[in-house]
Amino acid sequence: NAGVMQNPRHLVRRRGQEARLRCSPMKGHSHVYWYRQLPEEGLKFMVYLQKENIIDESGMPKERFSAEFPKEGPSILRIQQVVRGDSAAYFCASSPSSRSKRTSGTHEQYFGPGTRLTVT
Amino acid sequence: LAKTTQPISMDSYEGQEVNITCSHNNIATNDYITWYQQFPSQGPRFIIQGYKTKVTNEVASLFIPADRKSSTLSLPRVSLSDTAVYYCLVGDRTPLRQLTFGSGTQLTVLP
User: Which residue among B43, B49, B98 sits closest to A91, beta carbon to beta carbon?
Assistant: First the structure.
């Protein structure tokens, strides 16, 4: 069972360009979370999505950032008109649905390897 | 959400037992304590979770005193590969919601 997949692993963009980060959750998981980690800091929650729905986007900047999790395909975090302050590691996590027998009610989320975005 | 406080960094030597303590003075009755581990250039990985007393799994032990205002992650006989950042999280066991990470503890295991 493959883990959470993220691509690309490294992404370099010039200021003003668009960045698209992709996340494929673990098989059978229908919940996706995006986190951002600035250098020397802990992870900060950005957005929580289910298939075709945004559940909580309270941690995502109102401008330039958007996220989706379509019925088919990976979840995508999109950053428009990137600035140098967007340089960070972006991690995706997934978890099974609350009805899954595998869910024990823990905080357990399964994280991907991250995408390191560098804005030049 | 309960605020957590951990040491910024710790050093240890191979083969030693390492104890990392986390303070969470305003922990709520429904809150659990969870620890994640993050290696460089990787996403965090769940280690252990507990509510009170002691929890042990194949990786670590978690000690929680009766007042639950702190907890201690214990790693037996660490190796160089245990060098990582360890995060203490506190919250209720509602699944499917965001996790709140603090700054974590950078553990460095020396040869």
Answer: B43
d(CA B51, CA B63): 9
User: Rg of chain B's alpha carbons, rounded to an integer?
Assistant: 13
Of the residues A9, A107, A108, the best mutation for testing chain B's interface (the one with the most B CB atoms within 10 Å of its CB) is A107
Mutation target among B94, B96, B101 for the A interface, most CBs of A within 10 A: B96
SS (H, E, C) chain B: CCCCECCCEEEEECCCCEEEEEECCCCCCCEEEEEEEECCCCCCEEEEEECCEEEECCCCEEEECCCCCEEEEEECCCCHHHCEEEEEEEEECCCCCCCCCCCCEEEEEEC
| Closest CB from B49, B98, B101 relative to A48 | B98
CB contact under 8 A, B44 and A43: yes
- DSSP H or E run through A7: strand A5-7
Place of tokens 């059978």: A28
d(CA B29, CA A118): 42
**Tens digit of each residue's pLDDT (9 = 90 or more) over B43-99:** 999 999 999 999 999 999 999 999 999 999 999 999 999 999 999 998 876 655 778
E-assigned strands of A8-114?
Answer: 10-13, 19-24, 31-37, 43-50, 53-56, 65-68, 75-79, 88-95, 110-111
